[in-house]
Model the fold of this input.
Amino acid sequence: MPERGLLLVVSGPSGAGKGTVLKSLFTKREGLFSSVSATTRLPRPGEVHGESYYFLSKDLFRQEIKDGNMLEYAGYCDNYYGTPRGPVEEKRNQGYDVVLEIEVQGAMKVRHSCEDATLIFIMPPSVAELEKRLRKRGTEKEEVVQRRLETSKAEVHTASAYDYIVLNDEVNRAAHDIDCIITAEKLKPGNCPKIFIE
Amino acid sequence: MPERGLLLVVSGPSGAGKGTVLKSLFTKREGLFSSVSATTRLPRPGEVHGESYYFLSKDLFRQEIKDGNMLEYAGYCDNYYGTPRGPVEEKRNQGYDVVLEIEVQGAMKVRHSCEDATLIFIMPPSVAELEKRLRKRGTEKEEVVQRRLETSKAEVHTASAYDYIVLNDEVNRAAHDIDCIITAEKLKPGNCPKIFIE
Done:
């Protein structure tokens, strides 16, 4: 049986650069698997069940919540979005380290639903840079940008509830930091049973 | 003020290769400082106080124990050997990561005397390899080798009390593992206060 993989929850405020850092991490390290979310919204053209999302009916999604099968979930625009526990467990038991890129509120929920999850907070380098990145995203009104910025600034204060804080001032270094975190976590006694000699 | 450094306690059974791994680590990473032990034995020619050892009188050593100024200590051949707390704290406050290479019993004492120490166990790759290394050391009698081997095998069972277990099957990889542990430990919220943006 392979060694059980980790569950890495990578989170942080909107504009912190979670996606970019993870993209770099995936080029550095093997054995990682991106968690697939579940949703009740309808598939868009080209989206594949089990790859883009698990597409569930609202009744089934509610049943999965009731049965404790969602590591976290939230409602958004009249639909549910969440992380099903089953596929995460399956991949971990196969030896993969499962990576869950997720908003701050979801990460805090995983803290409670999965005791051995490793929580990593991606910290933007400065408020100015955060603002720049939020503006770059599109043509949102100033009001929307300001509201998002306030939310992101508030979310920075949740960082101390995470296991690790990674500063994203330089994408490759930030990815290297996460690479080290994974290596180190695998060296904890609970995670390396087969290292013992006889 | 610089960020406070870590205290890394690197331990493991005799023959695990602690010294060799640390030598490799010191070539990979800056900002490390090797802790200097205190002893009551007399200096040998060429040994310098504060570099080879802190040479203390027995009275002074006993007073330091009484005052709680020893992170750990032990008696050996009618002399005391130990780790003075003061210089370790001083170097950590200057931002150095202090490395303490120490026997298993001493490491367990540091667990209690220094709450934020990071304990790393160096695991030999196999009993056969351990035996080979213990034999290589010199011309000890078979009886001595066997006794040491039994002690080392018993000490392997303390590994789960450490924060991390590093398998020394390949020196460079083992040193890389410790390098990652240090990087990861510095990303814990308590160790990276200056990472927070405002």
User: Anything to note?
Assistant: The first helix of chain B runs from residue 18 to 28. The radius of gyration of chain B is 18 Å. The mean pLDDT of chain B is 92. The beta strands of chain B are 7-11, 32-34, 38-39, 54-55, 70-76, 79-84, 97-101, 118-123, 164-167.
